[in-house]
Amino acid sequence: MSEKEIYDIVIIGAGPGGMTAAVYGGRAELNTLLLEKNFHGGQIVYTNEIENYPAIHETNGIKLANDMLEHAKKYGAKVEYKGVDSIEVMEDGIKKLICGEEEILTRTVILAMGATSRKIGLDREEELTGRGVGYCAVCDGGFYKGKVVAVNGGGDTAVEDALYLSRIASKVYLIHRRDELRASKILQTRLFESGVEIVWNSTVKEIQGDDKVSAIVTVDKTDGFERKIDVDALFVAIGGIPTSDLVKGLVDQNEKGYIITNEDCETSVPGIFAIGDIRVKSLRQIITAAADGAIAVHAAEKYILENK
Ligand code: NAP
Q1: Mutate to test the pocket of ligand 1, among 284, 287, 288 (most ligand atoms within 8 A of CB)
Q2: What domains, with CATH codes, occur in the chain?
Q3: Is the pLDDT of residue 2 over 80?
């Protein structure tokens, strides 16, 4: 494709939402480009077991990501591994994407950049990352066979991580700031039967260790009690931060940086859509991101027809 040609849809981010949008874009015979800065799959590649995607009783994140990408390519979406530096809406409504030296023109953009792991914000957290502090139990859990580990968080990710680690480590602690978990009931039931020790009402106050993690200090917010727990690793799973800096000042976002859309995934800028974990929504799952992908392409197609 020459530089002067204009795509119908450029999707930024190849997570489940972006890859679904690519399937729908291709099947609608729209000239579709899927851009990914790192690796396709997004956060799902950190998930060991996926068992809530209809008809797929059990799979893992990497396999599902690969299957989705193949599906997208099958219907003609073009996939390129490159990051987008900026987006400009030109006078005629065409969007110009700058990717290094390259300019990409498109009628519509679907923002599907997802979210990244939130940090606790402790003094030694960054320094000890990769030396016991981790954000992906599935990636790094294998290093802690027979060791003692802690997970921080109370959502689906933290509970899944704790369950995964309980099959590898000799002892797992789950540190959660409240007295009830946010995770789904089925995961909670498994957790309560797993032998994982839950440290309720507590946050991690300190990470200790010279060149690698040797202990954490938790503080119980009900009575201020501080507890030192010897651990070889701390996995942080306290939610995500939307990867929305690229469109700061361009599309409306809430105070946490999540992009505000309507039901059709339309942002405040005509012809720019947002899908999946990056947008304001009540349920962030693979299936809801995928549904967004389908909805956004349908809305993009309508936009293209109306603005030809
Ligand atoms: P999440 O649902 O936002 O949960 C984050 C957890 O971390 C919450 O328990 C929260 O506590 C805690 N937390 C937040 N900030 C904290 C802080 N500064 N210090 C200590 N604790 C803090 O995030 P997630 O578990 O990563 O899940 C993200 C989305 O993906 C969710 O919609 C989830 O359902 C989905 N997901 C689904 C699956 C699945 O279906 N199998 C698997 C993984 C993720 P509070 O509860 O007190 O707010």
Answers
A1: 284
A2: 7-116+240-307 (3.50.50.60), 119-236 (3.50.50.60)
A3: no
Residue 48 has what pLDDT?
81
**Residue the block writes with tokens 């909670």:** 188
Which amino acids bring their CB within 6 angstroms of ligand 1? Answer: 52, 153-158, 160, 177-178, 182, 203, 237-240, 283-285
CA of 123 to the centre of ligand 1 (A): 22
Q: Residue 159 C-alpha to ligand 1 middle, in angstroms?
A: 9
Q: pLDDT tens, 196-238?
A: 999 999 999 999 999 999 999 999 999 999 999 999 999 999 9
**Residues with catalytic annotation?**
136, 139-140
